[in-house]
């Protein structure tokens, strides 16, 4: 990873504490808190690794277990250095952080989404905390490839204790991170982040 990418990811790591998941007062769309379900190290060691794929921007995301089938937009950094999030009017869309690897490349690819956006409707990641280890995530890429990931853990963590290294740090295989807000809510702010960790399990051509 280049020094520029590392700096951008470090900035995003801090900004992820404030990932935009706000909703209108009185609307409670928080994903339920749950214990981490990290696979033991032996589970990774025994699985045959799937080779990384070439860089190709994600254009769609499917998570069958929670009924997600959404377009994916590109996100960067805002003028104040915080990570961009999908506009509240695009509550049904996820956003790929373009300074991270594309899904299926070596390293952690990062995708953000709202949990709730009040009067604009429920966020695309409102049920993210319901995922379990082994659940399937499909990233549809611009080049026609589908990169399929298997969930390895789901964590709900306090924003003040955001696991920066775990989310943005270097890894030796293609992985995916899905991030939204969760936990108790005060006004328009959630206390926690819900983070899904997944690793590449297969690649295939897209079907029409």
From TrEMBL:
Positions of region (Disordered): 28-51
- Keywords recorded for this protein, A-Z: Hydrolase, Signal
> Could you tell me which InterPro entries the record lists for this protein?
Sortase, Sortase_dom-sf, Sortase_F
Signal peptide span per the entry?
A: 1-23
Query: Among its keywords, does the record have Membrane?
Result: no
Q: Keyword Transmembrane, does the record have it?
A: no
For bias type Low complexity, the affected ranges are 30-51
Listed NCBIfam families: class_F_sortase
Q: What name has this protein been given in UniProt? A: Class F sortase
Q: Which organism is it from?
A: Streptomyces lancefieldiae
């Amino acid at each position: 990873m280049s020094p520029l990418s590392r700096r951008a990811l470090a900035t995003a790591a801090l900004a992820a504490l404030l990932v935009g998941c706000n909703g209108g007062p009185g609307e409670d769309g928080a994903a339920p808190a749950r214990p981490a379900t990290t696979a033991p190290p032996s589970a990774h060691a025994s699985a045959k690794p799937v080779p990384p794929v070439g860089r190709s921007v994600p254009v769609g995301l499917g998570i069958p277990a929670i009924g997600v089938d959404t377009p994916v937009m590109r996100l960067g950094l805002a003028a104040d250095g915080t990570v961009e999030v999908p506009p509240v009017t695009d509550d049904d869309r996820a956003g790929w952080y373009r300074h991270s690897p594309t899904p299926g490349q070596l390293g952690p690819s990062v995708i953000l989404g709202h949990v709730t956006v009040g009067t604009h409707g429920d966020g695309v990641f409102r049920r993210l905390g319901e995922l379990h280890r082994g659940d399937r995530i499909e990233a549809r890429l611009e080049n026609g490839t589908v990169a399929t990931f298997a969930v390895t853990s789901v964590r709900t963590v306090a924003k003040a204790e955001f696991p920066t290294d775990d989310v943005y740090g270097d890894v030796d295989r293609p992985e995916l991170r899905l991030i939204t807000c969760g936990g108790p809510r005060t006004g328009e702010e959630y206390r926690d982040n819900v983070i899904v960790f997944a690793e590449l399990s297969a690649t295939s051509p897209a079907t029409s």
